[in-house]
Amino acid sequence: MSRIAYVNGRYLDQRRAEVNIEDRGYQFGDGIYEVVHLHGGRFIDEDRHLDRLERSLREIRLPMPMTRAALRHVLTEVARRNRVGEGLLYMQVTRGVARRDHAFPRTPVPPALVVTVKRIAPFPQDVERWAAACITLPDLRWARRDIKSINLLPNCLARQAAREQGALEAILYDAADGMITEGAATTFWIVDEAGAIRTRHLDQVILPGCTRAALLDELRQAGIPCEERAFSLDEMRRAREAFLTSATSFVKPITRIDGEPVGDGEVGPVVRRLFEIFARHVQGDRRNAA
Fold first, then answer.
1. Separation CA 141–CA 29 (nearest Å)
2. Which residues form the signal peptide (predicted)?
3. What is the pLDDT of residues 86-121, one digit of tens each?
4. What percent of the chain has a predicted confidence (pLDDT) above 90?
5. Phi and psi of 240, rounded to 5°?
6. Are strands 132-138 and 250-257 parallel, antiparallel or unpaired?
């Protein structure tokens, strides 16, 4: 069965789906995107993702392409038509089609909306096999990383560098002060040498991760302390444990960075527990993983 995409009001065979060559997303990267995890036919953290979509659109002065209720219907319909119960929904909103000009169109045009879905492997069960390695790179992205822009060239270059070095992710840092920002497509966390769980505070330097927010809520409910406080490359290298979060990484242990082991090089007890807690979150079970 061919995949079905939603493109500007129509459900189309994805092999034949097209966008106009003067779409501002294609020519300028003038748009916003979101990715939502679909598990067991249920959208995980859907409201968080739609809230972030609306916020990012406001920040670039672009209206929602339709009401939230209508967008939810489109997401559900794309999943249904593709018969996907375990997957990733991708949605992209751009400033639409207009003659090429860097400034916004003088006469507003309708935003363009594309939604696709792809199947992914079932939620991981083995935390040991879910572990990965990272590299570190200077953060070369623009200043408004809190906006989920479709401009992802620095992220792509960082991910490619990681792949070429046999790693999954690139952990980015500010070259001016050596402070960690985030992963190229993930939120980065450590369990520092004192045993504190830490991730950078929210500001314009990092994306407000939806999985980050969901895990913080779970930690609060479980009574597990966590610090939203920046840390340096040096603190990262002395950390006991490290992990990533995202809609596609969930809670992913990181056991090697730049070829060196994190802590003892094994999945640690804190990350192991957080993996279990987040697995319960995905399953819709609000109980603590003790």
1. 14
2. none
3. 999 999 999 999 999 999 999 999 999 999 999 999
4. 97
5. -75, -40
6. parallel
Q: Indicate if 115 and 143 belong to the same structural domain.
A: no
What pLDDT is stored for residue 263 in this prediction?
Answer: 98
What whole-number distance in Å separates Cα of residue 196 and Cα of residue 269?
13
Given a contact cutoff of 8 angstroms between Cβ atoms, the answer to whether 272 and 127 are in contact is: yes
Range(s) of the domain holding residue 103: 4-119
Which phi and psi angles does 87 have, rounded to 5°?
Answer: -170, -170
Answer yes or no: is pLDDT of 148 > 80.
yes
Closest CA to 216 of 236, 199, 240, 231: 199
Using pLDDT thresholds of 50, 70 and 90, give the confidence band for residue 2: confident
How many domains would you assign to the chain?
A: 2
Query: Which residues participate in catalysis according to the annotation?
Result: 148
| Torsion angle in degrees (nearest 10) through CA of 133, 139, 141, 143 | 130
What would the pLDDT profile of 193-249 be if each residue is shown by its tens digit? 999 999 999 999 999 999 999 999 999 999 999 999 999 999 999 999 999 999 999
- What is the Cα–Cα distance from 98 to 107, expressed in whole angstroms? 9
Pair 98, 109: CB distance under 8 Å:
yes
Confidence of residue 285 (pLDDT cuts 50, 70, 90): low
DSSP 160: H
CB atoms closer than 10 angstroms to residue 29: 13
Do 49 and 161 reside in the same domain of the chain?
Answer: no
Tell me the torsion sign for CA atoms 155, 88, 169, 216.
positive
CATH at 226: 3.20.10.10
What is the CATH number for 77? 3.30.470.10
Specify the pLDDT at position 290: 30
Note the pLDDT tens digit of each residue in 46-64.
999 999 999 999 999 999 9
| Residues whose CB is less than 8 angstroms from the CB of residue 286 and which lie 6 or more positions away in sequence, other chains included | 221, 280
